[in-house]
Amino acid sequence: MNNLEEKVSEYYRQNDNLLLAVSGGADSMALLFATKRISEEKDFNFRVITVDHGIRGQEAERDVTFVADECKKLGVECKIVKIDVPAIAKKLKMTIEEAARAARYEVLEKNCAANEKIVVAHNQDDQVETVLMHIFRGSGIDGARGIPKRDNILRPMISISKADILDYVAKNKISYQNDSTNSDLAYSRNYVRNKIIPQIEEVYPNFKENIYKFATICENAANLVDSLVDNAWFSAKNGVICVKTAAFLQNPLIVAKAVKKAYNMLGEYSDLESKHIEIVKELFDLGKNGTKVDLPHSIVAEKRNDCVYFYKHTHKNRDVCDFKLGLNTLPNGGCWNVSKISVDQVDFTSDCYFADYHKIPHDAVWRTRKDGDKFEKLGSRGSKKLNDYFTDKKLTIKERDTQILLASGSEVLLVLGRDVSNKIKIDDGTSDIVKFEQK
């Protein structure tokens, strides 16, 4: 093994099951090639997923086809997924960059089996760019540590420079594709990469290595602050996070971490700017009971009885909410968490509900009842009208109108808090299980 392969190999363990995200660019193709070589010496399994974001037309189709063809040559399983990032960005009022990143990770999470880890090709240059962008936006030490770490995502090339990756690609004659949007300065990352960093390097040649070391120092500092945050300061009920007085009487770094922890508890992991932390602190210090402030990512902070409550903003008359892995906000404002688990984690004696993940259609949504709805209760011999099921349950008109359902078209898959459908039941062929848990 050469130096790059040795560094990548440190992240892989015997009997691992890995899902590699491969775009077709030099970084991810180097990762694919290195992983294939390492797998011949270590006993682990891996497969590939490649995503067409719907941004670059024929060029994107070329890239995913290229990845699939290269995987076939290597004898590696490959799955192609297509998404419409421009439509997602418009719907969620996000930039193309933000929407692409969020949608890509959602695709990876959806396609990752319970026993798999996701592997991505972020490198040292990516880390440096991320640190700079976070600092430019006014981030604190959390943002200064760069690309956020996630439990089920491996970044084996994070300490390897782009130059070393290109050298590895050239020496091993690895084919790859160039993304034409990487030179488009309308994207903020491209501007940082192609305009700002080269100018800094003219004066400070070791700039990238030093920023990478700086991010590692910030990571250690942030971990120390994390350890000083007391879980007793937080409580959660029905999708509302209460942060108690004690949290706001700490050192400013700990206050910032407490606010971010509240965000995380609501399923939001995007980096917060320091100005937003200051807004929340001012709300606690000066706000009257009932005072509310709107924060990024549709989160509201509200002062009540010397505490600050955080919750997702919901529209009172919202009819439909998207189904996804992670924290799901329902049409009635409630929150349920949907997570992938392994078979041995299923506990039918709990208050949770369980289903076969792959039996849930991609168009499934959370909603209330509609005319023509049908439901095949778990254990029954066939479907019936949803209203007949409600009659059997002796539900009042109000209960029927407000009952939250997971449905695909007119097929009800889950009567939340009551019953699961036969259509998504767990059976001997189930590979991935999802747990529905009220927050």
What attributes does this structure have?
Uridine Diphospho-n-acetylenolpyruvylglucosamine Reductase, domain 3; 14 helices; 5-stranded parallel sheet; 439 residues; alpha+beta; globular; Rossmann fold
The N- and C-terminal alpha carbons lie at a distance of: 47 Å
User: What is the β-strand count?
Assistant: 21
- For CATH, the homologous superfamily of the largest domain is named as HUPs
Shape, please? globular
Unreliable segments of 5+ consecutive residues: none
Q: Which CATH architecture of the largest domain?
A: 3-Layer(aba) Sandwich
Strand content: 15-25%
Q: What's the structural domain tally?
A: 3
Q: How would you classify the quaternary structure?
A: single chain
CATH topology of the largest domain: Rossmann fold
Biggest β-sheet description: 7 strands, mixed
Structural class: alpha+beta
> What is the CA-based Rg, rounded?
24 Å
Helix content: 25-40%
Overall mean confidence score, pLDDT: 90
Under CATH at level 1, the class of the largest domain stands as Alpha Beta
Please count the helical segments. Answer: 14
